[in-house]
Amino acid sequence: MVLGNKITSQELVIPVAPSPITMFGPRAACLVSETGSLWVSDTGHHRLLGWRNLPTQDHQPADWVIGQPDFYHEGQNAKGTPKSNTVSVPTGICVCGEGLAIADAWNHRVLIWHKLPEDSHVPADLVLGQANFTDNEHNRGKQLPDANTMHWPYGVFYHQGQLFVADTGNRRLLIWQQLPIENGQPADLVLGQPDMISRNENGGNSPTAASMRWCHDIAVWNGNLVVTDAGNHRVMIWQGIPTANNTPCEVVLGQNSFDAVEMNQGVYIPSASSLSMPYGVGVTDDWLVVADTANSRLLGWRKLTSILSLQGVAADILIGQSSCQSKSENRNFGLPTRDSLNWCYGVKICGQTVVISDSGNNRILLWKFNYGN
Question: Helix, strand, coil: what percent of the chain each, to 5?
C-alpha cells in the first residue's frame, strides 16, 4: 500500500496542505500489530496520524490525529504553547509497553502514552526531557545536558522493559533500564559520551567505537543493540545490551574501521557496503534492514553466526535502486513509483510487513517482506 497524496508532475512544487490523506516529510511510522493499528509521525505537519487497522487501499485517509485541532491545520504545537497533546517536529515513534512513545524533537522531549491512543487529541501521560508538558527549552535552558535533559531527540525505542532515546543534538544515546514512571525522570545509562554532562561530537575527539555524531534510530537484533549513527555514516552494533556508560560497540556497518567516517567511504558512488546518512533501522530474527537515507535506498544484512562477522561486510539485499552503485532519488530523479525511494528516513518491520517512511516523497510505503529471498 501507498499512503499519502498521489503525486503528479504538476504537484511536485505545490506545498502539501494537511488533510486526512496527505503528509509532509513523515520521518517514522509504527505498526502496532500485523493487522494494525498504524501510527505515523507526520513531521512537517507537526502531528501524529493514526489508522485503526492496517490500511487496505492506497491513499486511505487516517482515522485519528493528535497534535492539531483537526486534519486541516498545521503548525508547531498547533501554533500555540506546548501541551500534552501537541508536538513540534515529531520523529521516532514506537510501541512502548501497552502504549506508545514519540520523540518530539523540537520540543526536546519524549511523550509516552500508557495505553495505545484510540481516538484523536488523546493527551500523553508522561514526558521525559522536560519537567512538565509546557516547557520546551533544549537541555532545560542549560548549556550542558544532564541525565534528565534532551536536545533534539530524534529516535525512541522500547525493548523488554528498557527505553532507549537517541538524544541526537547531545550526540548520545540514553537508556532507562525500566520504563519511567515520573515526568522528567533521569536516564540510567549513556552511550556516546563519557558522562551525562558531555555533548561534543564524537566525544570531542577522533571517532571511536564508543563515540557518536548524529545517532538517530535504535533496534535490538537477536539481543544485540543497534544504533544508526547518521553523522558518521555508519550503523553501530553492540554484543548484547550495554550495562555501563560509554561502552564501545563491537561492529560497524558502512565503514571499514571505527575511525573512518566518510560518506560512502569517501567515494562519490555508493557500494553494497557503504552508507550515506543512514537514519532508520528495522529488524526481524534473520534480517537487519537499514534506511540508507541520502542514497535513497534500503540495505539488508542477513544474520550470521556471530555479529563479529558483520564488520564492514556488504549487504545481502537492496531495495529502491536498480544497483548498489546508484543513489539518485526515485532512481532517476523522476516521479515516485511503487519501487522507488526519496530520502527514506524510517523503516520498521512488524511480522511480514515493512513500514517505510519515504520522507522525500511525502508518503508511507507498506511492503511485504519475503524472509526467504
Answer: 10, 35, 55
Q: In this structure, what C-alpha cell is assigned to residue 318?
A: 537492496
Checking if the pLDDT of 125 tops 70, the result is yes
Residue 19: CB partners within 8 Å, gap ≥ 6?
5, 61, 71, 72
Coil, helix or strand for 71? coil
- Specify the pTM: 0.97
Q: Residue 37, preceding bond cis, omega within 30 degrees?
A: yes
How many whole angstroms separate alpha carbon 3 and alpha carbon 55?
Answer: 8
Q: Cβ distance 84 to 127 under 8 Å?
A: yes
pLDDT average, residue stretch 211-232: 98
Alpha-carbon distance of 49 to 67, in angstroms, equals: 9
Report how many helices (DSSP H) and strands (DSSP E) the chain contains, helices first: 1, 24
Q: Compute the distance between CA of residue 61 and CA of residue 74 in angstroms, rounded to an integer.
A: 17
Domain borders along the chain are 2-368
pLDDT tens, residue by residue, 267-292: 999 999 999 999 999 999 999 999 99
pLDDT tens string 174-213: 999 999 999 999 999 999 999 999 999 999 999 999 999 9
Order of all β-strands in the sheet with 162-167 = 153-159, 162-167, 172-176, 189-191
Is the pLDDT at 23 greater than 90? The verdict is yes
Phi/psi of residue 331, nearest 5 degrees: 70, -55
In CATH terms, the fold of domain 2-368 is: Neuraminidase (2.120.10)
Rounded-to-integer distance, Cα 218 and Cα 23, Å: 24
* Order of strands across the sheet that contains 224-229: 215-221, 224-229, 234-237, 251-253
